Amino acid sequence: xxxxxxxxxxxxxxxxxxxxxxxxxxxxxxxxxxxxxxxxxxxxxxxxxxxxxxxxxxxxxxxxxxxxxxxxxxxxxxxxxxxxxxxxxxxxxxxxxxxxxxxxxxxxxxxxxxxxxxxxxxxxxxxxxxxxxxxxxxxxxxxxxxxxxxxxxxxxxxxxxxxxxxxxxxxxxxxxxxxxxxxxxxxxxxxxxxxxxxxxxxxxxxxxxxxxxxxxxxxxxxxxxxxxxxxxxxxxxxxxxxxxxxxxxxxxxxxxxxxxxxxxxxxxxxxxxxxxxxxxx
Amino acid sequence: xxxxxxxxxxxxxxxxxxxxxxxxxxxxxxxxxxxxxxxxxxxxxxxxxxxxxxxxxxxxxxxxxxxxxxxxxxxxxxxxxxxxxxxxxxxxxxxxxxxxxxxxxxxxxxxxxxxxxxxxxxxxxxxxxxxxxxxxxxxxxxxxxxxxxxxxxxxxxxxxxxxxxxxxxxxxxxxxxxxxxxxxxxxxxxxxxxxxxxxxxxxxxxxxxxxxxxxxxxxxxxxxxxxxxxxxxxxxxxxxxxxxxxxxxxxxxxxxxxxxxxxxxxxxxxxxxxxxxxxxxxxxxxxxxxxxxxxxxxxxxxxxxxxxxxxxxxxxxxxxxxxxxxxxxxxxxxxxxxxxxxxxxxxxxxxxxxxxxxxxxxxxxxxxxxxxxxxxxxxxxxxxxxxxxxxxxxxxxxxxxxxxxxxxxxxxxxxxxxxxxxxxxxxxxxxxxxxxxxxxxxxxxxxxxxxxxxxxxxxxxxxxxxxxxxxxxxxxxxxxxxxxxxxxxxxxxxxxxxxxxxxxxxxxxxxxxxxxxxxxxxxxxxxxxxxxxxxxxxxxxxxxxxxxxxxxxxxxxxxxxxxxxxxxxxxxxxxxxxxxxxxxxxxxxxxxxxxxxxxxxxxxxxxxxxxxxxxxxxxxxxxxxxxxxxxxxxxxxxxxxxxxxxxxxxxxxxxxxxxxxxxxxxxxxxxxxxxxxxxxxxxxxxxxxxxxxxxxxxxxxxxxxxxxxxx
Lengths: 281, 711
Prior knowledge:
By secondary structure, chain A is of the alpha+beta class. Chain A has eleven helices and 14 strands. Chain A has two domains: 4-167, Uridine Diphospho-n-acetylenolpyruvylglucosamine Reductase, domain 3 (2-Layer Sandwich); 174-279, 2-Layer Sandwich (Enolase-like, domain 1), CATH 3.30.390.50. By secondary structure, chain B is of the alpha+beta class. Chain B has a seven-stranded mixed sheet, with helices on both faces.
């Protein structure tokens, strides 16, 4: 038997979470697969399952000036359909999983699952997303890069719930996303690359680049990004070799049943070179 | 009279669309127990001991000692036990069954069973099998079977050869990926056993039960239930599942349900044979291909299964659609400690045609010719002989087929354009192929001896009694149409339910693209007899197969007509390879077939579209690798079959060429539609990347390796 709780409010959920070991369950698209057993046997959840997907407090989707605040239990479909959602937030979501999974999978779930191949993560890293972690008596805000510590590992405490994802303001006229997967839809990423840039004339005013599925956590390299800051976009190819070296050292892809480390490494760097040479200019 | 090709609504349409169809897993009974299979964790080992936990009342363990009859699966060679006795030969081999009312408790019992193994050195692939000098898996030799046959005089050709073109190709595993996993329900009542489930071949199962139980056949009943796909995966494998379920029902004295989970199903059921194929073509001083030597090797897995028959089809197909007078063709099916390879739509054809079509591409390149132009020069024609020397007696319209496909696909023009635009990462490929319909050689006569029955009732309805199973291919509809058309009655007046061995004679298994052409023709002949007696009220007519007089086959020397008849086809696939990720994007697919008269155009289109997608999946998506005897991919997240957005819709056409001996002129189709997709895709990728493709699936990882090579 599985012990399951369906709180009526976030407050109630946090009380439950403070009292016993719980597994927070939003859409369930990862959890139901992870804990599945023989068909017809209840999934093998170790602790109490705490349903949060229905809580209105976690479903908000607001724009405050140019800051997006997204409730952790917003489904991918809800986000895609929200009024005014900019392209740079939409792009990775559009090629994630399948329409039916996007209808139940939540942004908070994708973050807390902390898979190296999590499809929303490179975007959130690149945009400096901040996460609100709430417990019964406390709330804290952390950067996503500090939240995820390894494959499947986060700093979320046993009494906390990820309640909100904040995307700081940013106007990104240049957005680029490339995903290599096992097929065209409903596919787990082999390697992904997400980048945004802003220009001041021909000068790069700001640039962010992040790789998914190429290391235990998303790879973003602020030092490498800083090299491109303020340079003329036509000068970028001159920096290619230096940048490639920077990222080649940072990427730590593995061999697994979906692909090889060699493929992931080479493909990531080929996409990077293509982006800098062709997409940025 | 209606045109028989005109599509009608399928008879299984409503129950499937409305969700009313009752599959094996849907059958609920308060009494029903569940069965779970305990499987080998070792690729090759002796079982030293098994420790069982104490069992609560109502729970049972079934092992080899519970088999009242013979513990040997009745197939070509009887080397495979239903349940392991003292040794295991592959990971996933069934050792025992746990039976009981509560699934969770069954899992707990499984956890507590301790199997003590003494591991033996396994043979894990073809190369290892070829090197092995001792300690073989099967009867003191490395192969289950080894064949060789010749045509013409290859020795003379080799002496005079001016040029030799050589290739070696490899193909991987493929999983049938039927929507419904293996599923059987069994019950014992009044000294009889009834086994129902998701199956292709009711009489294979009946025979397996007869052997395992040692019961006379009157006490055994096998029924097909609505079945969520087969693709060959429910040809021989369900015999094992059915015997397991029957043993459990016998021991527990209760009905049982044995349904595999997806992971279990992918891990331990049969797969398409991985193959290594070597081809050597000899050309004379006028650049004509005068002879070939071909060697085919398959990884048959741990038991012989149907590997001999698959290998036969492979060596009878690997000559392709070309008339080459001098041939030497060899084949070996190697025993390894991998999962058992078995039947899969195409049955050796997909590997064979991939190799031959790519070989022809490479010969064309060597001769600075366009591939299709080269191929046209060797097309088989009526009156030619096949690789086994059988005279081809029907019209062969390969020239028309390729002319039509060239026209609808723009192949020739695009091929030239892409060649000119070297480095554009785009390509187009064309494959030309056949599929032999029906059992190999005179197997229909010697082995199957199919029989059909029609029962006519007073109310002028007619019942079809055949063992042909509806596995999505549409036979509940097509066979009805054939009978109704002969009798000139509305199709609704013809009854035909899922086969039940108590009612239906053995009209053979639902395999080998034989249902419409062989069983349909028997029904056609039977219906003509019924028609002649139409006024008689209620009566039954049986019709048995007679081997056509124009065919002959020598099974010892592989001489004569390797198949009763052939269907023909050509595919064109156009691709773009992503220069960054090396993913293959299929831009267009075209298909033209000669299947004689189509019995239902919509069902035919369904077979074409599905076969094409399954063949393209085989060619570029579906990766299944054995590491140390364990399949790494075991679910649909890791084993990627095509989705609706992976490939564009296929533009297809048919050539009008009715077959004299088929019902209303029909030939086989089910497998043909898969056979040519991968070679057309591979030829397209080869053109797109300018590197020689030597294996499928064409994964981005493999294409990267090719691009890294300085070709």
